[in-house]
Amino acid sequence: MISKYKITEIFCSIDEFCKVFEPAFQKKLISDGKKQRNSAFKMSQSEILTITVLFHMSGYRTFKHFYLHFVKEHLRSEFPVTVSYNRFTELMQSNMLPLVLYMKTCCLGKCTGISFVDSTPLRVCKNKRINANKVFKGIANVGRSTMGWFYGFKLHIVINDKGELLDFVITQANEDDRAPLKEGKVLKKIFGSLYADKGYISKDLLEMLFDQGLHLVTGIRNNMKNMLMDMRDKILLRKRSVIETINDQLKNICQAEHSRHPSFGNFLTNLVASLIAYSFQEKKPGIKFETENTSQLTLFY
User: For the segment 197-223, what is each residue's pLDDT rounded down to a tens digit?
Assistant: First the structure.
C-alpha cells in the first residue's frame, strides 16, 4: 500500500513542475478562433498526473478498480474533489504531454560513466488475438525476441550503475536493437562505458560510438574469435543482469505491459507513468563497483 508520505512527495514534485509548465504552455498555444474554456477544471493537472502515477505503484491490476475503490474511498482527504471514471480517463490522456515532459526533465538520473542498455518487448495482446486486435491495427507489428514472437512494440532503456533510468525510447517490434543507438536517440548525455548483450554487436556501431567518446562493451558469439578484455569491463559485463531485473520490475510491478489498452494514447500514458513510478522507488536494483589505485604491479617491472 502507498504511504501518505509517498503520495505527498509525488504530488509536490509534480505540482512544482506544473507551476512552470502550464504558464509556458499557454503562451505557446495558437488560437483556432473557437471560444476557449474559461471555467476551471474540477481537478487540477497536478492531481490528474499524480493519480495516474500512483496507479502504477498501488498493486491494483486495473485502473478502474484503483480509481473507484481506492482513490474515491481511501484518498478523499488528498483528493477531495474527483470526477467520474470515464471523465478521468479522458483527462488522463489529454495530459500525456506534461506527463512525458515531467519524465524527461525530472525523473531521469545522471550518467556516472557506467551505463547499461537493453530492449524488452511490450506485448499489447496475446498472439492468438493478433488478427482480432483493432486498437493497434496499422500501428503495432510482429517482432521476435529471445522469448519468441510477439505483437506490440519494443522499449529501449539506458540505466546507470545505481539503477536509475538515463533515457528511453519506443520503437516498432521488428526494429533492430542497434537502430536507436545508431540514430543517437538515447545516448545524448551518456559517456564512459556502455555495456550491452550480444544483440548489439556491430563493428560500425562500435566505431561510431568510439568516435563520440563512448566505449561499447559486449560479449562475443560462439563463432567469433576470442579477444582480450579489460578485467573491469569483464566484471561489469557480468553485472548486466541488473537491467534485466529493471525490465522485469517495469512489467510486473509497475505494469508497463498489459493487454487492456482502449487506445494508443492510453498505451503511451500507461507506459510513461510506469517509468515515473519506477523512478520513485526508494530501492532500485543497482551494483556496487569500487576501484582502488595500487602500486602492487610495480613489483613486476
Answer: 988 998 899 999 998 889 999 987 777
**What is the distance of C-alpha 278 from the center of its chain?**
8
pTM for the complete prediction?
0.88
**CA-CA distance, 235 to 211, in Å (whole number)?**
24
CB atoms within 10 A of CB 173: 20
Contact 142, 173 (CB under 8 A): yes
How many angstroms separate the Cα of 283 from the Cα of each of 65, 190, 257?
A: 27, 23, 21
Grid cell 553485472 — which residue?
239
Nearest CA-CA partner of 118 in 197, 210, 208, 218:
197
Q: How far apart are CA 86 and CA 181, in angstroms?
A: 39
In sequence order, which residues have a C-beta less than 8 Å from that of residue 222 and are 6 or more positions away? none
Contact 122, 256 (CB under 8 A): yes
